[in-house]
Amino acid sequence: MADEGLPASSDAASAIVVSVSPPTIDFSLHARNRAAVVDNLKRFGGATVPEKAVILVQGGVAETRDDTDHEPLFRQESNFHYLFGVREPDCFGAIDVATGAATLFIPRLPDVYATWMGDILPPAHFQAAYGVDTVLFVDELDAALTAMAPTVLYTLRGLNSDSGNYAKEAAFDGIEKHRVDNGLLYEAVVEARVIKSADELALLRYVNAVTCDAHMAVMAHCRPGLLEYQLESLFRHWCYYHGGARNMSYTCICGTGKNGATLHYGHAGAPNDKRVEDGDMCLFDMGCEYHCYASDVTCSFPANGVFTKDQRLIYEAVLAAQRAVLDALKPGVKWTDMHALAYETALTALRDGGLLVGDVDEMMRANLGAVLMPHGLGHFMGIDTHDCGGYPRGAARDPRDGFKSLRTVREVRAGMVLTVEPGIYFIDHLLKGAMADADKARFFDAAVLARFWVEGGKSFGGVRLEDDVIVTEDGCENMTIAPRTVEEVEAVCAGRVVERLAIAAYKARADAPVYGGALELAAAARKSKK
């Protein structure tokens, strides 16, 4: 952990060494995914699943931007990726429910394709690459299914509770000749995706490691005077150059100062274009994906690398909330209870720090937490950042503010992967409403609040800390090895901690709480220093 010879913080990002390399993808992962879906289909459908049933799914379609010939980089439809792992667009996949045999249907490409896009690969290539039993062309789909003579075609149709959009159901000329059931497969796929396999967890750990290194590179490089998008650019470069992660898993959020109070800042109308100012708090929520598996990590830190007293108050309240949840998270707990625990812990810290006054139980009854943290505690994560399965059949949203934003209300089970991302934000319209509500306004010390927020004027912004965790049989493993204590954050910003394993060792040496897999990483780091 010695820092002799390390560069100044402005150059530290270029010195950070990546401690991981891109893994080779074993496509048997997707064969096991297919088997899990078939098992679910039989379990959920029972005696209604007939002999000679076939699953039919359609992959994503190559598209152009509006009326131009520009083709944005294709990213596979998530359910199709889960089942087949195919990178190319315009494919179909069929699975024999009785045997598990998989057939991939690929587009028949014109000869001119070879001129512009490279060699036209034969079906045998795709069969070997993706580990399927048979590869045919899409224009053979109708004939192939006719030959299979399925008693029923199970197609994918279901509502994604995060987006409100329906999964795309397979369609082709001739499907009307078959008996189609679109009511069972979606649940079978979603429930399989909710519980991650060992293969999936290995990919998620990898992409988390890349993301954490990239976040630390950004923190070491950040200084007043830069533009937010320059720091976004550094993150993107790091993930691709060092980690092979070509795609971000969502739009990068690089909110500094007041922008940190905009939960999904960074969109087209607010494109991470503010200049970083001395005294700003930075809230950077960024993740990448590898083989379509996502990371979702948020770090918050002072732009100049040193916390003020007020910044520390808000930051440590959020950190206390996150650690309380990490300590309590295990199979059998309800996610709504974890959300309430985050509220209670943060409110207690803010009361102890002087921003709030009064009894925390009364604050909870007034739902004061939703004023300062209007979003849910976290969400499932996997092939999608907001992964599917949050609201299974029969689950209802809690109507209370804050709670109604929860992306799942499920009881936690081993094998789930969730984000734990409490935050505190000074959002103008929410605080304005709270100040007009006597039941909520009575809990704020107006003089202290004025240091953080003035109606229609200044705002501290916000702090969010987001870690990605695997629920284990008796607790959780935190995949996110990022600086979390004030001391760790300041050390990384100053360029004194320069790699992922180093931060794990730093946590262990400082006797800070470390969760799950971080302990092994810390031990490996200490061993490597000998």
TrEMBL record:
GO molecular function terms attached to this record: manganese ion binding; metalloaminopeptidase activity; proline dipeptidase activity
Keywords noted in UniProt = Dipeptidase, Hydrolase, Manganese, Metal-binding, Metalloprotease, Protease
Record's keyword annotation contains Ribonucleoprotein: no
Q: Which cofactor does it need?
A: Mn(2+)
Which reaction does this enzyme catalyse, per its entry? Answer: Xaa-L-Pro dipeptide + H2O = an L-alpha-amino acid + L-proline
Q: Cite a single Pfam family from the UniProt record.
A: Peptidase_M24
Q: Where is the Aminopeptidase P N-terminal domain?
A: 25-164
Q: Which InterPro entries match?
A: Aminopep_P_N (IPR007865), Creatin/AminoP/Spt16_N (IPR029149), Creatinase/aminopeptidase-like (IPR036005), Pept_M24 (IPR000994), X-Pro_dipept-like (IPR052433)
Its EC number is 3.4.13.9
- GO BP of this protein: proteolysis
> Subunit info?
Homodimer.
Q: Tell me its family.
A: Belongs to the peptidase M24B family. Eukaryotic-type prolidase subfamily.
| PANTHER family reported in the protein's UniProt record | PEPTIDASE D, PTHR48480
Mind telling me what this protein is named? Xaa-Pro dipeptidase
Source species: Bicosoecida sp. CB-2014
